[in-house]
Amino acid sequence: MTQTDPQNTTTATESSQTKSSDEPILRVNDLHVSFKTDEGMVRAVRGVSFDVRAGETVAIVGESGSGKSVTNLAMMGLVPKPPGNIDSGQAFFGGRDLLSMSDRGLQSVRGRHIAMIFQDPMTALNPLMTVEQQLTEMTRLHLSLTRHDARKRAIEMLGLVGITAPEKRLRDYPHQFSGGMRQRVMIAMALSCEPELLIADEPTTALDVTIQAQIMELLADLQARKGTAIVLITHDLGVVAGVADRVLVMYAGRIVEKADVRSLFAAPQHPYTIGLLGSLPNVESNRDEPLAAIPGQPPDLSQPIVGCSFRDRCEHRFERCQTDDPILTPRESLGSEPHLAACHADVNTGETRQ
Amino acid sequence: MNDTQMNSTDTPLLSVRDLKVHFPFRRGSLFNSQKGVIRAVDGISFDIARGETLGLVGESGCGKSTTARAIINLVSPTSGDVRVDGVSIAGMSDAAMLPYRRRVQMVFQDPFASLNPRMTVGGIIGEPLVVHSLARGRDRKLEVLRLMELVGLNPRFLNRYPHEFSGGQRQRIGIARALAVQPDLILCDEPVSALDVSIQAQIINLLMDLQQKLGLSYLFIAHDLAIVRHIATRVGVMYLGRIVELAKSEDLYAGPKHPYTEALLSAVPVPDPEIASKRQRIVLSGEVPSPDVYYPGCAFADRCPVKIDRCITDRPELPPKNHAAACWVREEALTAKSAQTN
């Protein structure tokens, strides 16, 4: 890999500080994805680079339209083309670039080595197939299990995710399960081939808090036992604080901040992250004081963006922000991982950085 | 505020007593059908005072939205009483309801589904003024422009259609429409849950600002406990069609009494890794049971970590207290304690 792009340089800094045994299992490099729409070309992902190491949980945080889901769909070859197009970038997994792989090649990776769980289990499960059919399909295909062994494995997996009487429930269809139970079935399916990487796209957003707590606990438990790396895509900073090791904050198709979870929450360095954390009511927030809302709205990605994409909503903006798009640069980290932010300002002093 | 006559200030603005909404259903085949009843709301009581915000929290299916809908007769209550300024409106005809609908307005969760896509913003906000014959012609237009300004919408957008707005702006349109008739009470049904975090805070600030300016009362329904804590003066926690705990906001969050409230609060993710790693979570087993099953005792007993035999057979009621929990285990301790202090 040649390191020419500024965002690549940051990736290099990051990995040079990690032990060699922590070689990333996934390395995404300067990914660009766009969609052709009636309003013009929407640049959904505009140069995203990150690593995921074995056994760790990386959270990708951002609001609707920030590109967090598209980034992951692109890696899995699930961006509909057209209207979507992967303009450039690589995603190395096990030494191979997922983005230049054939459909056949991808099929041998998807489900087997990288699995995905989605926000809405009802749309991800096939309503016309029993849970048994769906659970055994993958293991028979990828692990070449016999029908009998696949069934045994399915029962084992359902038990593992906490579904009672798994033998009986195998015959049921998805609609016979509640929302939380369906999400468990999806997790059982995703983990049945013991993938090295699990991409969880808003896995608990559709669920109630008490069920959400059960599911997050289950994921953490399975991760500890199987050593699966997890990419967690979410807008819920509360969930992130509870489970993530590292966090990537996305805004308007870019990563604007990248840090150790503790460092990010204790000393956020990008004005957008600061704004997001300020918008949340918390234990200390006073009823008499308004919440620190971020004014305005995210930019229209069908229009070309010159300069920093956050500048119109930013309290620290300078003239330079109108013209130069800031790149990720290292800041002081309060955790064991580097802390990077893409901002021309030093948010601690309000001064511009050289 | 309003030209309708005010009763004495002792009368709560809204008073709900033993409200029940049951939906009968029939399932199975034509020849082998079973009849049953979904107890969406099963006997709840609360008051809302002028200028107050009552938060109603609970998980999906607990009946919080049905409660709001029953208050303004969008679904007919099966039994119970709803009073606005002491006047009973439950089960009133649509025509007789009209003056009360003016006093009690609603803001809905989905700003995409609750605005007519074929009407302009001006038309949407002005429609209540037509229905209630409050302003016409030029006056109406001026009033609409005033309302747009009040909720932070640019008056230039008067002739635009809902699809041209973002979620947050659409929610502002819905709020302006509710304010058009100068209501006393606004029922907000998950008004921010469809919005992004940074936009949520804008709408919460707007609602609180309007409350100060106009002396509004809110019934604020949400599943996000952190937001309810910020906006509500009092909070009711619902489980399976009943209020299991009702208290001042500070008291409820500082010392929840009902085991369900405890579990719910402990499950809320905290956006702070230090606190999150130290916190003891009460992870409830099982899920909210189906509301078509009748529980003679406490509906939470199946999942309750502290249940006693009595919970299976006797139904606990909310005692008339400032901080009330419908729980046999916790309420006994409470009675003993407060008997000493009083």
From TrEMBL, chain A:
InterPro entries: AAA+_ATPase (IPR003593), ABC_Ni/Peptide_Import (IPR050388), ABC_transporter-like_ATP-bd (IPR003439), ABC_transporter-like_CS (IPR017871), Oligopep_ABC_C (IPR013563), P-loop_NTPase (IPR027417). Residues 1-25 are annotated as: Disordered. It is a peripheral membrane protein. It is found in: Cell inner membrane. The keyword Ion transport does not apply. The keyword RNA-binding does not apply. Coiled coil: none annotated. Residues 26-277 form the ABC transporter domain. GO terms for molecular function: ATP binding; ATP hydrolysis activity. GO terms for biological process: peptide transport. Keywords: ATP-binding, Cell membrane, Membrane, Nucleotide-binding, Transport. GO terms for cellular component: plasma membrane. Residues 1-13 have a biased composition (Low complexity). It holds the Pfam family ABC_tran. Belongs to the ABC transporter superfamily. This is Oligopeptide/dipeptide ABC transporter ATP-binding protein.
From TrEMBL, chain B:
This is Oligopeptide transport system ATP-binding protein. CDD domains: ABC_NikE_OppD_transporters. InterPro entries: AAA+_ATPase, ABC_transp_ATP-bind, ABC_transporter-like_ATP-bd, ABC_transporter-like_CS, Oligopep_ABC_C, P-loop_NTPase. SMART domains: AAA (SM00382). The keyword Cytoplasm does not apply. PANTHER family: D,D-DIPEPTIDE TRANSPORT ATP-BINDING PROTEIN DDPF-RELATED, TRANSPORT ATP-BINDING PROTEIN. Residues 25-265 form the ABC transporter domain. GO terms for molecular function: ATP binding; ATP hydrolysis activity. SUPFAM superfamilies: P-loop containing nucleoside triphosphate hydrolases. It comes from the Bacteria. One of its GO terms (biological process) is transmembrane transport. The keyword Mitochondrion does not apply. The lineage of its organism: Bacteria, Pseudomonadati, Planctomycetota, Planctomycetia, Pirellulales. Keywords: ATP-binding, Nucleotide-binding, Transport. Belongs to the ABC transporter superfamily.
